[in-house]
Amino acid sequence: MRLHIKTTPNSNIVSFDYQKKMVGRIHSWLGNNEEHGKLSLYSFSWLHKGHITSGGFDFPRGSQWFMSFYDDKLLKAVMAAVLKDPLMFDGLVVTDLNIEPVPDLSNRDLFYLGSPILIKRYEVGNPVTKYYTYEDLTADDLMKETLLHKMEAAGLIPDESVDIRFDREYANKKIKYASYRGICNTSNMCPVYIFAKPETKEFAWNVGIGNSTGIGFGAIY
Questions:
Q1: CA atoms of 8 and 25, how far apart (whole Å)
Q2: pLDDT, tens digit, for every residue of 49-91?
Q3: Is the Cβ–Cβ distance between 144 and 211 less than 8 Å?
Q4: Per DSSP, what are the bridge partners of residue 96?
Q5: 70 φψ region: left (φ > 0), alpha (ψ -120 to 50), beta (else)
Q6: Domain of life, per the record (predicted)?
Q7: Sequence-ordered list of residues with C-beta below 8 angstroms from that of 61, at least 6 positions apart, any chain
Q8: Residue 28, class by beta-carbon neighbours within 10 Å (0-12 exposed, 13-18 middle, 19+ buried)?
Q9: CB-CB neighbours of 82 under 10 Å
């Protein structure tokens, strides 16, 4: 399921690298649970409805974002925690929560991004992380590989028929550089096609696409 969140306007400028604040707040809402340190079976979007200003982002009419969970119990736990403590950061306070059940995705193949897709791999003997973008066809296979791994971690039978690929005809696609805790990540702002069984697309809708969905990459809608 998906939790849609609206907030008040900010009181301080929200820094460009606010992701670490988002992650910290989400972890505090999650509280002590067995998901910490495990492969993330949830995803969340970046803050929307703002604009760039000097030194960061401004949300004069408040922000909107969403979180999605494979495990509905986690969504309910986060919702209860937010209601008790709605303060986020930089003056953003949650004012509205709405639950969206997983929609019927059987006739949908194209998905848009709530946050950029990150695809990375570590090579043995190479200390440098290798990032993949839509310019590399290998990226498609790696997105599939990661989703199948998450299905297995969730105790599901991996859908080997799944085919994930970037919509490389999308006119506004771009490579996005996003800093997280001092590391510059090369990510992708480009919609994706997911050809798979309906239940596999539902799983992807919740857990996201690519790596590091637990720190704000790969949320789709």
A1: 16
A2: 999 999 999 999 999 999 999 999 999 999 999 999 999 999 9
A3: no
A4: 6
A5: alpha
A6: Bacteria
A7: 9, 49
A8: exposed
A9: 19
**Contact yes or no for 208/68 (Cβ under 8 A):** yes
pTM across the whole model: 0.93
Residues forming a β-bridge with 193: 110, 165
Bridge partners, 177 (sequence order):
186
Q: Is-contact 192 167, C-beta < 8 A? A: yes
Pairing of strands 42-44, 2-7: unpaired
pLDDT > 80? residue 171: yes
Q: Count of CB atoms within 10 A of residue 63's CB? A: 22
Give percent helix, percent strand, percent coil of the chain, each to the nearest 5.
25, 30, 45
Query: Which residue, 195, 48, 192, 171, is CA-closest to 112?
Result: 192
Q: Which two three-digit tokens encode residue 152? A: 């297995």
* Confidence band, pLDDT 50/70/90 cuts, at residue 35: low
Q: Which helix (H) or strand (E) covers residue 94, if one does?
A: strand 94-100
Beta bridge partners of 199: none
Specify burial of residue 120 (Cβ count, 10 A radius: 0-12, 13-18, 19+): middle
- The whole-angstrom separation of Cα 168 and Cα 46 is 22
